[in-house]
Inverse folding.
């Protein structure tokens, strides 16, 4: 039974109207943030820098990331009590959540991030400043280990689970579900300071990453791999290296001081066009993925 199709197997399947309130609530928050930035010409980077000057990086990071805990809790309660759907069916089509898949994905992408940073530091050390401060870093480490996986889990449970299943049920199309959630995932980051600094071309990176996460979810019939990748991407990245113009400005080990104008969109395309397809290939070989056209573009039918 497929990841989306499993919701059609009994009379307790979610009703389409049940997806509307929470979806409108969360996307309304995202749209509101974007409108504030655009209508009032607010610089999100200036707001972050000002807040850091007032309370410090750790407290600013905590203020930014704790709300995701409430959003995840709210989503879980909504799914359990309004949809009357199990968390297992929201997570995977398997009989139980496969933790090994999460660990494999997390470890693989962590290795890629670290090796990529080592190469970048080796070739252009002038672009990085080692800023390790034991007290600040270890406090941040504790905050990050607890809250970053919650933040990434909410985004995956909302995008690759809740919305993907809901749109799939509404349209009976895996392709529509895949492309729609990928675009929404990209637009969800439109108020980030990265967009302000690099322009809308960075949407290629965000939407491309969302597409990759959607593909591995549909091919693997569960979000375990997506959960692992996303957690590694945000957690390891935040701990290892950040800059003074991104959404996450943290007490990381290194600060990237590369001028924004020197960061080419081509460097982001390397991840989208090379590394993520390579990861997809590895996952496909390890987990024996087959019948790609049906998994990604097939129709959603009962008893599929």
């Amino acid at each position: 039974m497929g990841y989306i199709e499993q919701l059609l197997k009994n009379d307790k399947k979610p009703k389409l109207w049940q997806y509307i309130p929470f979806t409108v609530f969360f996307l309304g928050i995202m749209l509101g943030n974007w409108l504030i930035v655009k209508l009032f010409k607010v610089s999100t980077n200036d707001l972050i820098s000002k807040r850091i000057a007032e309370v410090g990086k750790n407290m600013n990071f905590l203020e930014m990331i704790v709300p995701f805990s409430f959003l995840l809790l709210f989503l879980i309660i909504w799914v359990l009590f309004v949809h009357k759907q199990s968390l297992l069916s929201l997570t995977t089509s398997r009989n139980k959540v496969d933790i090994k898949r999460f660990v494999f994905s997390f470890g693989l992408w962590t290795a890629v991030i670290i090796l990529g940073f080592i190469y970048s530091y080796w070739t252009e050390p002038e672009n990085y400043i080692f800023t390790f401060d034991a007290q600040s870093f270890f406090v941040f480490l504790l905050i990050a280990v607890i809250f970053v996986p919650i933040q990434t889990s909410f985004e995956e449970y909302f995008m690759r689970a809740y919305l993907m299943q809901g749109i799939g049920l509404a349209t009976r199309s895996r392709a529509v579900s895949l492309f729609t959630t990928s675009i929404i995932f990209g637009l969800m980051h439109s108020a980030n300071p990265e967009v302000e600094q690099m322009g809308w071309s960075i949407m290629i990176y965000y939407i491309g990453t969302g597409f990759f996460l959607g593909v591995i979810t549909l091919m693997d019939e569960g979000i375990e791999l997506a959960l692992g990748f996303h957690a590694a991407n945000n957690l390891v990245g935040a701990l290892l290296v950040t800059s003074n113009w991104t959404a996450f400005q943290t007490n990381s080990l290194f600060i990237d001081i590369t001028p924004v104008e020197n960061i080419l969109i081509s460097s982001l395309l390397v991840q989208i066009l090379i590394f993520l397809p390579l990861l997809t290939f590895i996952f496909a070989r390890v987990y024996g993925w087959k019948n790609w056209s049906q998994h990604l573009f097939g129709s959603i039918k009962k008893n599929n």
In short: Residues 5-297 form one domain. The chain has a mean pLDDT of 90. The longest strand covers residues 128-130.
